[in-house]
Amino acid sequence: MSEQSSQLNQGPPAGRVDPAEASVAQLVRQMSEDSSRLIRSEIRLAQAEMSAKAKDVGVGIGGFSAAGLLAFFGIGVLLAAAVLGLATLLPAWLAAVIVGVALLVIAGIVALVARRKITEATPPVPERTVETVKTDVREIKESARS
After folding, report:
1. DSSP, residue by residue, 29-84
2. I want to staple 17 with a disulfide (CB 3.0 to 4.6 A). Which of 4, 22, 52, 143 is the partner?
3. Closest to 97 measured CA to CA, from 106, 88, 87, 107
């Protein structure tokens, strides 16, 4: 006898009602229990999956932090090299001033661009959504009047 046919002949699992012999109320209760069990299982699966993803994100953030720190030091070394390179043509103090002024100009440009982006984004309200909701409310009011 195959495993499938032996399972079929054994009847329903313990605590379960044979659908052929069950009343509608028993079947509805069983369906409700099965649905609840399925939903709980899906929630546990989602929690486990999100926990694993959160761990991966944490590792990724740590990697980005390390990369940012190394890039910061690399930029410092390149700036020192720029000063030393200019110092072969100019006095060292003047080379340092030129590199410093160039950095301040670049920082100012970046700050202006960032400020413009922030003013475009504020206030942080989903303007299109607010407009569509207002339109929907207006249409509902008009349809309620007629």
Report:
1. HHHHHHHHHHHHHHHHHHHHHHHHHHHHHHHHHHHHHHHHHHHHHHHHHHHHHHHH
2. 22
3. 87
Q: How far is residue 43's CA from residue 26's CA, in Å, rounded to a whole number?
A: 26
Per the CB < 8 A criterion, the answer to whether 60 and 52 are in contact is no
The two structure tokens encoding residue 64: 């980005």
Per-residue pLDDT, 1: 46
Q: Which residues contact 30 (CB under 8 A, 6 or more apart)?
A: 16, 17, 22
Which tens digits make up the pLDDT trace of 43-82?
999 888 888 888 989 999 999 999 999 999 999 999 999 9
Q: Is the peptide bond before 123 cis (omega within 30 degrees of 0)?
A: yes
What is the three-class DSSP state of 108? helix
CA distance 95 to 79: 11
Contacts of 17 (CB under 8 A, 6+ apart): 26, 27, 30
The reported pTM is 0.51
Q: Are 100 and 86 in contact (CB under 8 A)?
A: no
> What span, in angstroms and rounded, lies between the C-alpha atoms of 97 and 104?
10
